[in-house]
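Protein fold
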Amino acid sequence: MSDEPTYPEEAAVGAEAAKQSAADAAGEQDAAETGAGKRKQYVKAGVAVGIGSAAIVAALLYANRGKRGSDKGNG
């Protein structure tokens, strides 16, 4: 056995390791920014769905309002 550690052939050693770690850090930052952008899109979509649902409920309540009044008068 030798005293030097063995590395896989694909492993970055020395200056290559520093370059690779810098590239990994930049990739993680890009991924974080992409995640934040997607989160904003999901929030916007959730707000739109909530507003749309409220509008539909309001329209149904308004549409059924006249029918309730006519039932009371005939009964």
The helical segments are 15-74. DSSP finds one helix and no strands in the chain.
